[in-house]
Amino acid sequence: MDLQSVPLATKRIGRAFRFLKEADSTNRIVDAEGTAGTGEGLLVMADMQTAGRGRMDRGWFSPPGVNLYFSLLLRPDVEPHCVASLPLVVGLAVAEGLAECAPALQPKIKWPNDIHVGGKKICGILCEMHLKDGRVDYLVAGIGVNVNILAKHLPPELQATATSIAIETGQTIPRENVLAAILNRFEPLYDEWRAFGFKALAQQVNMLDALRGKHLRMELSGKPTEGTASGILPDGALLLKTPKGTTSVYSGEAHIVGSG
Ligand code: BTN
């Protein structure tokens, strides 16, 4: 893929672009660039990944020719504790970009890192932070979007939980259009997040919250906990109402066990 064919309208994000036929993990490659001192905005994208990384030490299914696998190098001047909300900012850009490409999708943000369509995962986000002397040196924002993969080509273990634009709409779409829509949305949202913090975007994220009102099971401080998702707070935490009271959750995985 060459950037000439990508309708990119950004000033900084994705202007330095590397497209690889094959990578182990675009997050790994961008991480090495961060360590080497490469500037903010680098985009590395691969047609396929041989060791795609997911959250919680899981892998990311990355077959060739059908989906998007890309990572961005970011160097925001923010406090380390603010970085936990970055996946929601990326998620907002992905959800809005997907909605622009295929309005029927109605994508939702599943706190803290996923985009869902019709209750199934269409995109996963893996943000990794690198600190130097207690300050943010760089961040890697890795994004995998299922674009044109068909249901019959998903591995059995993903059949019930994953979807793609093609599965949802019955149509294939050029991957470069999806990439551009996401990056074009991301740049202004990222600038707002850097300048004003997540609170400036919380309302937009809450409007697309996939979990609100859902009954969740989560592990909090090692203890299984159930509660009702009650929105995303101005610092990016998930508000969980449990029988023992209301609690702010800053990290973890939310399993939906019912609709409230
Ligand atoms: C998750 O849902 O667990 C996060 C998945 C993130 C996958 C993307 S694909 C591009 C980038 N490179 C990787 O190795 N992982 C991210």
Q: Major sheet, described briefly?
A: 7 strands, mixed
Arrangement of strands in the largest sheet = 1-2-3-7-6-5-4
Low-confidence stretches: none
What is the class of the largest domain in the CATH system? Alpha Beta
Radius of gyration: 18 Å
The helix tally amounts to: 5
Order of SSEs, N→C? EHEEHEEEEHHHEEEEE
The total tally of domains equals: 2
The fraction of residues in strands falls at 25-35%
Mean pLDDT: 96
CATH superfamily of the largest domain: Bira Bifunctional Protein, Domain 2
Bound molecule types: biotin
* Bulk shape: globular
Features:
binds biotin, SH3 type barrels, 2 domains, 5-stranded antiparallel sheet, BirA Bifunctional Protein, domain 2, globular, alpha+beta, 260 residues, 7-stranded mixed sheet, 23% helix, 29% strand
Word description of this protein:
There is one protein chain. By secondary structure, the protein is an alpha+beta fold. It has 2 domains: 3-207, Bira Bifunctional Protein, Domain 2 (BirA Bifunctional Protein, domain 2), CATH 3.30.930.10; 215-256, SH3 type barrels (Roll). The protein is built from 5 helices and 12 strands. The strands form 2 sheets. The protein has a 7-stranded mixed beta sheet with strand order 1-2-3-7-6-5-4, sandwiched between helices. A 5-stranded antiparallel beta sheet has the order 11-10-9-8-12. Strand 10 (238-242) and strand 11 form a beta hairpin. Helix 2 runs antiparallel to helix 4 (175-196). The protein is globular. Biotin (BTN) binds at residues 25-27, 49, 52-55, 58, 60, 69-71, 113-114, 124-126, 142-144.
